[in-house]
Design goal:
alpha/beta, UDP-galactose 4-epimerase, domain 1, seven-stranded parallel β-sheet, binds uridine-5'-diphosphate
């Protein structure tokens, strides 16, 4: 088993997943440097950490080179909600390509392992289900999602070339839809949208006919998977799928949220965004066999925790602050 070392760099550390990872690393006694551009993340997700003397925050965009001392890197920096990554598509692509290149350089100089958050989006609109890591994907390279999907694919290429050259130790996971407390209520993603809409009594927006599927993983399970991967067998570079294989239709998700919140919101349909994958479900055999990892929190329990967290927010205070918050363009 690998050892993470004491000083850990988390890029995108103020994001939804990054802030949970910073919490977990600090609780384990690490010294954590959080790098974040704050283009889509929020200072409030890490406000509770700023007084911790083992926590350092650096405002920085990984597109620009940086020199840092560290024992390990978790590279999570990249807008991930479709509305965010499509708002500045070339910036998204650069984050995955130039940004990852810069982080590989930090890893090489420090001889530190680099963990990279890739995505189920590398599979595009898959024509097999569930998706194993060996599936090479079905991505439209010129569509509105391509800045993210192809950027993340190129990042994997870069990381595995660096590994082959012996420059760095890499650890790549492909993350499937994840939800939980600290999602931004206006990030435009389905779980955050449905919960916010149901609490506020807004219409629940079903894109398409709602028969498309996703498999939703609770954030705590995912962070367990990150740590298991980073501390896992040295020869395991991945990519390794991390996600919850329980597949649901979007309509089913809407009904569950409505029932739990006892909301009178109405379901309304909106056009399906271009290239929206019709199905998505991880094959997690590799993670289970090599890392002993599998998700523990089912959708019912995870939704309840997320709803409770959303109920505690002053939603008025979270209105979209920047151009990254206008929601996904629905047409090409
Ligand atoms: N979706 C929806 N209503 C919304 C937001 C999303 O029906 O208000 C659908 C979206 O079209 C997609 C699925 O929910 O089929 C998941 O969307 P999300 O943006 O959360 O993530 P994706 O998996 O597409 O990256």
């Amino acid at each position: 088993m690998g050892d993470i070392g004491h000083r850990v760099l988390v890029t995108g550390g103020a994001g939804f997943l990054g802030s949970h990872l910073c919490d977990r690393l600090l609780a384990r006694g690490h010294e954590v440097t959080c790098l974040d551009s704050f283009l889509t993340s929020q200072r409030r997700t890490i406000a509770h950490l700023e007084a911790n003397d083992r926590f350092t925050l650096i405002e920085h965009d990984i597109i620009d080179p940086i020199e840092l001392q560290t024992d390990a890197i978790f590279n999570l920096a990249c807008p991930a909600a479709p509305g965010h990554y499509q708002a500045e598509p070339m910036h998204t692509w650069r984050t995955s390509v130039y940004g990852v290149d810069n982080m590989v350089e930090v890893a090489r100089r420090n001889q530190a392992p680099i963990f990279h958050s890739s995505t189920s989006e590398v599979y595009g609109d898959p024509d097999c289900s569930p998706q194993p890591e060996s599936y090479r994907g079905n991505v439209n390279p010129i569509g509105p999602r391509a800045c993210y999907d192809e950027g993340k694919r190129a990042a994997e290429t870069l990381l595995f070339d660096a590994r082959r050259r012996g420059d760095v130790q890499v650890k790549v996971v492909r993350i499937f839809n994840t939800y939980g407390p600290r999602m931004h209520p206006y990030d435009g993603r389905v779980v955050s949208n449905f919960i916010r809409q149901a609490i506020n009594g807004e219409d629940i927006t079903i894109f398409g006919d709602g028969s498309q599927t996703r498999s939703f993983c609770y954030v705590d399970d995912l962070i367990d998977g990150f740590l298991a991967m980073m501390e896992g067998p040295e020869d395991l570079s991945g990519p390794v799928n991390l996600g919850n294989p329980q597949e649901r239709t979007i309509l089913d998700l809407a009904q569950r949220v409505l029932e739990k919140i006892e909301s009178s919101s109405q379901l309304v349909t909106k056009p399906l965004p271009p290239d929206d994958p019709l199905q998505r479900r991880p094959d997690i055999t590799l993670a289970t066999d090599r890392l002993g990892w599998k998700p523990r929190v089912d959708l019912e329990e995870g939704l309840e925790a997320t709803i409770e967290a959303f109920r505690g927010l002053d939603l008025e205070d979270w209105t979209p602050p920047t151009k990254y918050w206008q929601g996904p363009p629905l047409t090409d």
